[in-house]
């Protein structure tokens, strides 16, 4: 028989991801966010509400792997109403302060989940209500700070500043961690994270925070420094929490909703915890 050339293995993208697809999806997301933040704030809030709702579904599916059954439909509805309604209260002055409306909606979501679960079998009630409470506290309760920040004076610019600090934190952690990382930060949760990378995330977030305060917010450099120094640990915490949920559930990605990127929670993890922190720092520093 003639010699046959051995079959060549198909190159596998690094980390098992389709790089062109990841870049394409990333550019589409970036363009959508840019349009929303720069020209159509309502579109940004709509994208945020839909993304948070899909993140609810992802966390629900992860908890199902642990035998925990949240009232996912009720929580998705509560998330949409909380985020879109809080923005509507501000945008069209519908009678309630956005903060009051958000609190009512989140509390109403908890009550609705309790009622919905009461109608089912008695067994597993505590476990399932705990699952619903976790998702509500993790996603709509923190995600609602997006429209709340939008309702502040110069709200769009505040969101841009916070997002810029989160991106700087993630970028600094990756760059410095890759170059100088030696000491593992949380090897049982995220083996790639190092203390050197964490220091890099704080430094880059602080620098971008100062720049954003001076050129975007018209605030003092001291406020920008505080913003950056607070955002970096919050973003890192959000990343670690989501990583541990995936590890506990035996998942690599939360879902495949975003080809090349995983799930919405894989993109929102840092931002979720950073938004309340950014809202608090800027409200204390600039008023509301």
From TrEMBL:
Q: At the top level of its lineage, which domain of life is listed?
A: Bacteria
Q: Which GO terms describe its biological process?
A: CDP-diacylglycerol biosynthetic process
- Where are its TM segments located? 21-39, 45-63, 75-94, 100-120, 129-150, 156-176, 197-217, 223-245
The record's subcellular locations are:
Cell membrane
Q: What class of enzyme is it?
A: transferase
Per the UniProt record, which EC number(s) apply here? 2.7.7.41
The catalysed reaction is:
a 1,2-diacyl-sn-glycero-3-phosphate + CTP + H(+) = a CDP-1,2-diacyl-sn-glycerol + diphosphate
* Keywords tagged on the record: Cell membrane, Lipid biosynthesis, Lipid metabolism, Membrane, Nucleotidyltransferase, Phospholipid biosynthesis, Phospholipid metabolism, Transferase, Transmembrane, Transmembrane helix
InterPro entries per record = PC_trans
Its pathway is: Phospholipid metabolism; CDP-diacylglycerol biosynthesis; CDP-diacylglycerol from sn-glycerol 3-phosphate: step 3/3; Lipid metabolism
Q: Which GO terms describe its cellular component?
A: plasma membrane
Give a GO molecular function annotation for the protein.
phosphatidate cytidylyltransferase activity
User: What is this entry's stated membrane topology?
Assistant: Multi-pass membrane protein
Give the similarity note.
Answer: Belongs to the CDS family.
Name of this chain's protein: Phosphatidate cytidylyltransferase
| Organism this protein belongs to | Arachnia propionica
Lineage, uppermost ranks: Bacteria, Bacillati, Actinomycetota, Actinomycetes, Propionibacteriales
């Amino acid at each position: 028989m003639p010699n046959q050339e051995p079959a060549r293995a198909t190159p596998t993208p690094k980390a098992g991801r389709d790089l062109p697809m990841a870049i394409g999806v990333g550019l589409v997301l970036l363009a959508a966010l840019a349009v929303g933040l720069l020209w159509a704030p309502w579109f940004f809030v709509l994208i945020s509400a839909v993304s948070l709702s899909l993140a609810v579904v992802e966390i629900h599916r992860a908890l199902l792997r642990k035998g925990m059954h949240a009232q996912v439909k009720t929580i998705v509805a509560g998330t949409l109403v909380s985020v879109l309604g809080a923005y509507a209260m501000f945008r069209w002055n519908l009678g309630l302060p956005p903060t009051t409306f958000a609190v009512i909606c989140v509390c109403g979501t908890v009550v609705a989940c309790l009622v919905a679960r009461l109608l089912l079998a008695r067994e597993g009630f505590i476990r399932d209500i705990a699952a619903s409470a976790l998702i509500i506290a993790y996603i709509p309760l923190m995600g609602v700070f997006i429209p709340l920040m939008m309702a502040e004076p110069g709200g769009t610019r505040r969101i841009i500043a916070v997002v810029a600090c989160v991106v700087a934190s993630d970028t600094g952690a990756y760059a410095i961690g890759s170059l100088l990382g030696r000491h593992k930060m949380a090897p049982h949760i995220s083996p790639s994270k190092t203390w050197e990378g964490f220091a890099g995330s704080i430094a880059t977030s602080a620098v971008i925070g100062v720049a954003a305060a001076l050129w975007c917010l018209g605030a003092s450099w001291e406020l920008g420094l505080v913003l950056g120094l607070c955002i970096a640990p919050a973003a890192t915490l959000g990343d670690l929490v989501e990583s541990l949920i995936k590890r506990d559930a035996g998942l690599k990605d939360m879902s495949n909703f975003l080809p090349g990127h995983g799930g919405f929670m894989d993109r929102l993890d840092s931002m979720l915890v950073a938004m309340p922190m950014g809202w608090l720092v800027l409200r204390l520093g600039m008023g509301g």
